[in-house]
Write a structure and sequence with these properties.
The chain is mainly β. Strands 2, 4, 5, 6, 9, 10 and 11 form a seven-stranded mixed β-sheet that branches. It has a four-stranded antiparallel β-sheet with strand order 1-3-8-7, with no helix packed on it. A hairpin with a 6-residue loop joins strand 5 and strand 6. The radius of gyration is 13 Å and the shape is globular. It starts with a strand and ends with a strand.
Length: 133
């Protein structure tokens, strides 16, 4: 059974850090571009960070550049999102998603407004991140 399972969310104060994990089962992440997306209450889904399957190229949304970093551990079939200097506006449910298409397509998904779930093959159920004092 193909699954993506996110973990690591929680409550953190502004300026704090969290590391989200996305563990894959039922398929090998090596050949998939991976993206982290988020959806805040009452807002549209948006792309946060994506990483390619081949050379580790990454894309980060302007809102998280310099604060968030995506990485992958293919040996353990896991992708991470390191989030530093968190802000209240980062509060959202964070989802990881995987797709086998070329990097340009995955990157486009990260960058597009209101990315559709149909644009990525597999999605996790999400983990909640709350940034509040």
């Amino acid at each position: 059974q193909v699954q993506l399972v996110e973990s690591g969310g929680g409550l953190v104060q502004p300026g704090g850090s969290l590391r989200l994990s996305c563990a894959a089962s039922g398929f090998t992440l090596d050949y998939y571009g991976i993206g982290w997306f988020r959806q805040a209450p009452g807002k549209e889904r948006e792309g946060v960070s994506c990483v390619s399957s081949l050379d580790g190229s990454t894309y980060n949304a302007d809102s998280v550049k310099g604060r968030f970093s995506i990485s992958r551990d293919n040996a353990n079939n896991t992708v991470f999102l390191q989030m530093n200097n968190l802000k209240p506006e980062d509060t959202a449910v964070y989802y990881c998603a995987a797709d086998p298409r070329v990097w340009s397509s995955v990157q486009a998904m990260c960058a597009t407004t209101r990315p559709s779930r149909n644009g990525m093959s597999y999605w996790g159920k999400g983990t909640l991140v709350t940034v509040s004092s």
